[in-house]
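# step 3/5: fold
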Amino acid sequence: MPRTATRRRALAAALACAAMLSACTGNSDDGTSSAAGTPAVAPDSAQTTAASAVSAAATSSLDGTAAGAAARDKAFVGAALESANAYAKTLPGRTAAEKADAELATTGVKVLAISRSGDTPQQVLAQTTLKKTGAAVLVLLVGGQSGAPFKAAAVTPMLPDAKLDALDPTTDGSAAVGDGSGLSAKPDDVVAAFAASVKFPEPTATKVLAADPLSEQLRQSARAQSQALNNQGAFTQEHEPKGIIGGLRLKDGKGAIVFAHLVRNDAIAMRTPVKLTPAKDLTLLTGIKQITTEANLTSNEIIAVVIPASGQARIVAASDQLVAGSGR
């Protein structure tokens, strides 16, 4: 599965003297209603569906065969599918320990929230864990219309010490985010603020988001990658918002949990040709075995953000996965 963002490998942090490169929100009027409703899926059915969907995602993520690719098509959707397919391509270069670090638990899956009847797409927010460490992982499932199966649209390990506020009982269903009315900031504005705050160079400070370990790690990693080039090249990093994946309102109108997709572009341009060895993930994905003048890496970032009714939004879960790259 896509690795947790707080543990992502730096593009060029392993450079040694520049000799080596380690490398929908739902439709729902204004979405502010907190009155009890009817869940889109019965709680018992949602629990069975979530357990099955998480199991399918976990199993197919570790299967690099053609059968695994077919299984991922049934288990994932959107950016999550692209990320899962990219991760599967890197399996031949991963150790058993590395695979175990990313493996999802298929038992103990818990449904946290269910969207309300009439809201589209139907959503089930579930929680599982990383099998090895027990760390919490949020899984957003979407689909269900006309008997279509639910698929994982986001699989995001929670950040250290992050907490998710209470959601409405599954028997009532949770209201859709709608147009973001009643939130301290519009979801698109929050995502844009995050993207600007972690770009490199020249990040833009924001008061929309509270400080979090993901943003700090991204900024520190970018600085390290730039410094590792030792003035022999330039490093840039851009985070491009690609849209809101989904989300649900919190209990008693206290805000919403929103999942969003961004694409991160890491670029290195060497001032003079230098023989660089790419990280194994890039080689497995693209076949590139050596870089001499430039490299461009593309990664999917999926973040889960709690946006309160007032106050700063905060990122509570995130994942990223290298999905493409080029170099020469």
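# step 4/5: annotate
Helices lie at 43-61, 66-75, 78-89, 96-102, 187-197, 213-228, 280-286.
# step 5/5: archive (pending)
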